[in-house]
Amino acid sequence: MAIRPILEVPDPRLREISRPVELFDESLKTLVADMFETMYEAPGIGLAAIQVGEPLRVLVIDLQEPETEDGEPVRNPLIFINPEIVEHSDRDVPYNEGCLSVPDQYAEVDRPDRIKARWKDLGGKSHEQEIEGLLATCLQHEMDHLNGVLFIDHLSRLKRDMILKKIAKARKEQPKKAA
Asked: Fewer CB within 10 Å: C terminus or N terminus of the chain?
């Protein structure tokens, strides 16, 4: 397992449409293991393969809820390969979203509160399930990545531009790394 660099805006690779997984082999298992290690280290609750430079329809999620008595999160790693939403509710709910590819920025995004999703697991077995709450929000957010969409694309142009300016300013203020 390895921690991989996470692509950040404005990297053009984040706008690529990811291709379906066709081979459920060792390289896919390695990618998924690396994605979990990268996501936990970041730390985050979801990561799409394109965020680590792999344009494949693979995403990992772990809401890490609830915490144990000693304050440690309970790990519940979920893998979604070639996911698709087959139904969604008509009711949208707001959620204050953030993204590892849009560092330290958060904004409220409206998404359907319930979805029915279909995907394959690491062994290539198909699954279909109704999902709600934070998991539904997170799955929709990560699936957007597979289509080259970031959560800031759901915002008004003004809000999106403000976030991008904040990121650019923060990068300019970071101390230069020694070569």
From this structure: C
The catalytic residues are 142
Q: Is the entire prediction scored with pTM above 0.90?
A: yes
The beta-carbon contacts of 84-91 under 8 Å, at least 24 apart in sequence, are 84/117, 84/118, 84/119, 84/143, 85/115, 85/116, 85/117, 85/140, 85/143, 86/116, 86/117, 86/118, 86/128, 87/115, 87/116, 88/112, 88/114, 88/115, 88/116, 89/113, 89/114, 89/115
| Domain presence at residue 6 | no
Tell me which residue range forms the domain holding 62. Answer: 12-173
**166's tokens:** 């904040």
Q: CA-based Rg of the chain, rounded to a whole angstrom?
A: 17
We report the CATH number of the domain holding residue 104 as 3.90.45.10
